[in-house]
Write a structure and sequence with these properties.
Helix content: 25-40%
Structural class: alpha/beta
Largest sheet: 5 strands, mixed
Strand order of the largest sheet: 1-6-7-3-2
Number of domains: 1
Shape: globular
Radius of gyration: 13 Å
Strand content: 15-25%
Number of helices: 3
Mean pLDDT: 87
Bound molecules: zinc ion
Order of helices and strands: HEEHEEEEEH
Length: 118
């Protein structure tokens, strides 16, 4: 439960301001594995992994001026996912944002707290 709270606090789930310095990147192969696992956990999805536009943000997090806290991952309804460089291989951060893309901009639990490996 503590880890779930950490992810919820640090990920920018409420449309934070887009981070400065973000740049597009090709997701590493492990992301498609995590994506498939998340889809399986949900019991299926018609969405496509290729529908996500991935961005990295320099550093270990960015300050969101409108949320007044440090963010390490964020999903935007335009199907863009931003991940702080320092957390790009943190499964729980990446799958949390994938779950937003696949399921909901909110945090219904479950599947949040289960399918995002928090
Ligand atoms: Zn979230």
């Amino acid at each position: 439960m503590k880890r779930l709270l950490l992810v919820l606090v640090l990920t920018g789930c409420l449309s934070p301001t887009e981070p400065d310095g973000a740049y597009p990147f090709d997701p590493p192969d492990i992301y498609s594995v995590w994506y498939s696992e998340t889809v399986r956990c949900l019991g299926g999805s018609a969405a496509s992994f290729d529908g996500i536009e991935w961005y990295l943000v320099p550093g270990d997090g960015w300050i969101s001026p409108n949320l007044h806290r440090t963010i390490i991952g964020a999903y935007y309804p335009s199907d863009e996912i931003f991940i702080a460089e320092g957390f790009r291989f943190h499964r729980s951060v990446v799958t949390h944002e994938i779950l937003h893309y696949l399921h909901s901009p909110e945090h219904p639990a479950p599947p949040f707290g289960v399918c995002d490996h928090s």
